[in-house]
Amino acid sequence: MLEKIFIYTIAGFVVILKWLAIVLAPTLALGMVGLIISDIRDVMDMKLIFILMSLGALIGAILAETIRRKYGLIEFDGKLIGHPDIDGHNVLATKSTNS
To answer: How confident is the model at residue 81, as a pLDDT?
Structure first.
């Protein structure tokens, strides 16, 4: 019984971290856009960076919830990790046995 509680706790923690990772991607991306804009303007505009990062967090939360409801976070991450282009299996480079 205690092992089941431990496993469910760890599984819940992993799902929360995957959700936060999806939220964090657009947050950091828009934060970098804010830094680039501030660098171009030669003024460190913290308000602009904060607004863009908040917008990124909102977009990320919407994206994470859409992914969670449509695919599931673990399944989505598994599809990304197990993609043939990523794991080194090149379909076009294999020789066909029919010729």
So the answer is: 78
pLDDT at residue 93 is higher than 80: no
User: Would you list the DSSP string of 36-48?
Assistant: HHHHHHTS--HHH
72: left (phi over 0), alpha (psi -120 to 50) or beta: left
**If phi over 0 gives left and psi between -120 and 50 gives alpha, with beta otherwise, what is residue 90?**
beta
CB 45 within 8 A of CB 38: yes
Would you say 52 and 36 are in contact if contact means Cβ atoms under 8 Å apart? Answer: no
Give dist(CA 92, CA 11) in Å, integer.
37
Q: How many helices (DSSP H) and strands (DSSP E) are in the chain?
A: 3, 0
